[in-house]
């Protein structure tokens, strides 16, 4: 789903920092026109608008010039003005060879030690004036750098993204034929700013993970607006958006879908961590023909569900509003735990999203606190399991277990393949029973974590 790499090949690197209010202003007044005839400003503003439209992040353009180098290299926190322009050096130091542009971000510490995540308070973008530039779509032309896609890339750094090397992305370290924002770019920005992330599914329908995907009760509500569009996946000739939601406990849910533009229909189905639908867990509501609402009200078992938003009539499109309310039915109703033969408790948790915490009274493995979750694989599948925490340098373990709880032949361990000190394991797993362990690199580390399992589509 997401990968961040720190390869400073094209440009200055932003770190895992973010704008506190998910918004950044650029003063845009770049003199001149591209050989294509279009102004640089028009292309830059289009690139800003592309990020704003596609993600939870907001770029604001002020129609006046801002010198990107003003206040840089002075030891001050910039000059408070996000500027953009051409220059023949990176504000005093030479551009390295092949460097097309740089983004200079100014960071502010939020704690005395200046550790961990920092606030971005200013970003400035300098395009290398020694390059030959134009604005055009399509494949890269020889000896002609393309301004708008580099602007998209630098704006990605400005909002807090690093380079991406494992997926097709505008955030790849080199300028390429990729000229527009790609799903991975959008996911990256939304990952930082709490927007909806899209993940592939085995049914060829991308699954949307809203900024709030988990309902922990006792009385939780989320609202979101969406739009059925012709580029959506379709099911029985009807366009569909599928949201993945996780309920930590048995719940009474109330789902309401409304649209003024199409006759809406809802589908709800429970899924396992390998995206298999759980038989008998499906519900749907279409209401009367012509009604602008679809509703579901029912008790559901704790677990992860896909909620499909679609239309009664084939090929309908339009905007909709979705409200999901979940009331915890029983606080003690979450997932069953048993004591394993190794003396460590195992929670049977078949869900793709697990929120947990290493605690100082947890059991220990290898002298570190550990939580173990059991899940089943029913057909061979490639899974990507991300264990993330802002408090713990995580270590993720995946083992297969036989019916007598003896360990099988699979033993996977990862420390830091995820972003920062987070862990990621990607592996093809055969049918069977597996345990995954969430633990830490250092002894006596504890704190909240999240495990997200996604299916990797070949
Ligand atoms: Zn870059």
Protein described:
The chain is mainly beta and 458 residues long. The protein folds into 3 domains: 171 residues, Collagenase (Catalytic Domain), CATH 3.40.390; 131 residues, Jelly Rolls (Sandwich); 119 residues, Jelly Rolls, CATH 2.60.120. The chain has 3 helices and 30 strands. Strands 8, 9, 10, 12, 13, 15, 16 and 18 form an 8-stranded mixed sheet that branches. Strands 20, 21, 23, 24, 26, 27 and 29 form a 7-stranded mixed sheet that branches. Helix 1 links the parallel strand 1 and strand 2. Helix 1 crosses helix 2. The longest helix is centred in the first third of the chain and has 15 residues. It is globular. The structure holds zinc ion (ZN). The site of zinc ion has 6 residues, from helix 2.
SSE topology sketch:
Elements: E1 23-27, H1 40-54, E2 58-62, E3 84-87, E4 101-108, E5 119-128, E6 133-134, E7 145-146, H2 147-159, H3 183-193, E8 197-199, E9 207-209, E10 214-215, E11 219-228, E12 233-235, E13 238-247, E14 251-258, E15 264-271, E16 283-285, E17 293-300, E18 303-311, E19 318-328, E20 337-339, E21 345-348, E22 353-358, E23 364-365, E24 368-377, E25 381-388, E26 394-401, E27 407-414, E28 423-429, E29 432-440, E30 447-455
Parallel strand pairs: 1-2, 3-5, 6-7, 9-13, 10-13, 21-24
Antiparallel strand pairs: 4-5, 8-9, 11-19, 12-13, 13-18, 14-17, 14-19, 15-16, 15-18, 20-21, 22-30, 23-24, 24-29, 25-28, 25-30, 26-27, 26-29
The structure holds zinc ion.
Zinc ion binds at residues 10-11, 153, 157, 163, 173.
